[in-house]
Amino acid sequence: MKLTVNKILLLVLGLAYFVIILVKRNLYSPGLVDWNTIAILSTLIVVNTGLMYSGGLNYVAYQIIKVTDGRRKLMIISILLTAFLAMFLTNDVSLLVLIPITIAIGKFSGKNLDDVIIFQAIAANVGSLLMPFGNPQNIILFRLYSLNFFTFVKTMAPIFLVSIAILIVFSLVFKNEKLPPNDVKEKPRFYFFIFYLFLLVATIVGMLLNATIFLFIALIAIALVSLLFLEPQAVARVDYVLIVVFILIFLVMNSIRSMISLPFTGGGILTYFASIMFSQVISNVPTTVLFGKVSSWAVLSYGVNIGGNGTVIASLANIIALRNLSGKNFLKFNKYSFLFLLITALAGFLILFR
């Protein structure tokens, strides 16, 4: 069995919850898991699998990226496209769609595009922070605080715009060397693509309207049955392990929160910097669950979203990017990711506490 990042998380979280059971002498307490949130995340995982196998996303992305004739132009287009896709498809899925295209462009042009991949990872974290359905931590916060869509976007827009501007400035530093024409091609199945795009829209609308869990269960069933007929092998490629990991995150972090008293629940400066620091160590989704319902959702949201950059484990998107770098260029990734983290952490602080 290949030991992937998700499987490692499954083992670590599973062991942690086993220890918690031994300490508390209680297998499960009601309220530990937000099953509606799990249903939404599961629906997105299944539906996005269908979208990736349709070939439609790759086709659209390639049609946009293929107009590039230089590294700097490719960098800027990749940043904007990755950020845009991450708003709707989550940061992880946007990278799973776009990084293979970047790798193929590098192969056919004979150029090392590791720097483009690194900035795609940062852009995925940035783009996903704007929308309440852009990443798991936003979905959790949106439901936990019963937020309004427009309120969420309006609150997150300043740090999103600042972060995108910083990324564009970063991209201008790179030499604009020419990239020979590439011929990355893939024939999409548009009916397949449109059908799963409809399911994605239904999932997002259902989340925004706070629909019953049964809607998401129905969407999962429809998506899986459709995959069974349209792309049977894709059913086995759905990341079921990640779904279990999300359940364990709720079980472990909520259990820990019930056992200890956290000193940063006031929603102030301490909460902001603590959420960024915790994200570097345990990743931003577990940090979101661990902190729970602090007095200011905006402070926590800024902290865990900005904290998605930095260490490799701060966000799953970072791990996806790193494993696609030639030679697993750990130091180069950290150099850019930490620099971006420091700048945006300062920007977030000024926006929130000016």
Describe the structure.
By secondary structure, the chain is mainly α. 74% of the residues lie in helices and 0% in strands. It contains 17 helices and no strands. The radius of gyration is 20 Å and the shape is globular. The chain starts with a helix and ends with a helix.
Short description:
The protein is mostly helical. The chain has helices spanning 5-24, 35-54, 56-65, 71-89, 91-109, 114-128, 136-144, 149-171, 190-208, 213-230, 232-237, 240-259, 269-282, 284-291, 297-306, 316-322, 330-353.
Furnish the topology, listing elements before pairings:
Layout: H1 5-24, H2 35-54, H3 56-65, H4 71-89, H5 91-109, H6 114-128, H7 136-144, H8 149-171, H9 190-208, H10 213-230, H11 232-237, H12 240-259, H13 269-282, H14 284-291, H15 297-306, H16 316-322, H17 330-353
